Amino acid sequence: MKKIFAATMLALFSVFANAQTRFEQAKKNASEQNELILLNFSGSDWCIPCIKLHKNIIETDAFKKLSTDHILEYVNADFPRSKKNQPSAEIKKENAVLADRYNPKGLFPYTILLNSEGKVLKTWEGLPSQEALAFSNEIRSFYQKK
């Protein structure tokens, strides 16, 4: 019985030890697919510019095409205030780690274009002034330069 319990615990531990965060998975995918990563810090239920960014850029066909064309991996580090919108504990922890590393000033929205190794290529503080197509084309130009 002890051996079965030990084997079960070892199997569970190895699954959790090898679990990747969304950002680590994005880096892996970006490396394999030769893509860039867009990391966006948002407050989805309280930050008006964040809500506009998602509605007017992130949710558009022009932006979504960046993913389907294998140009971009998108990661959203969301910090909602409402209890009903809270992410899982694992996502909260990952978002906090990402904020410590990439957004120590706590800016919202804050959007960062990274290469597959996590090196910062460009940042946008606040709501980008471009339309969705211009924003997407700027990302495409970074992709073509690499």
How does this structure look, described?
GO terms for molecular function: oxidoreductase activity. It comes from Chryseobacterium aquaeductus. It holds the Pfam family Thioredoxin_7. There is one protein chain. Helices cover 51% and strands 17% of the residues. The N and C termini lie far apart (56 Å). By secondary structure, it is of the alpha+beta class. The longest helix is centred in the first third of the chain and has 16 residues, at 2-17. The protein has six helices and four strands; from the N terminus they run ααβααβαββα. It is globular. It has a single domain (21-145), classed as Glutaredoxin (3-Layer(aba) Sandwich). A four-stranded mixed β-sheet has the order 2-1-3-4, with helices on both faces.
Might you state the CATH topology name? Glutaredoxin
N-to-C terminal Cα separation, in Å? Answer: 56 Å
Q: Please count the beta strands (DSSP E, at least 2 residues each).
A: 4
Side-by-side strand order of the widest sheet: 2-1-3-4
Structural class: alpha+beta
CATH architecture: 3-Layer(aba) Sandwich
Inertia-based shape? globular
Q: Estimate percent helicity.
A: 40-55%
CATH homologous superfamily placement? Glutaredoxin
Strand content: 15-25%
Main pleated sheet: 4 strands, mixed
- Which whole number gives the mean pLDDT? 90
In N-to-C order, the SSE pattern is HHEHHEHEEH
Q: Please give the radius of gyration in angstroms.
A: 18 Å
CATH class: Alpha Beta
Uncertain residue ranges:
2-18
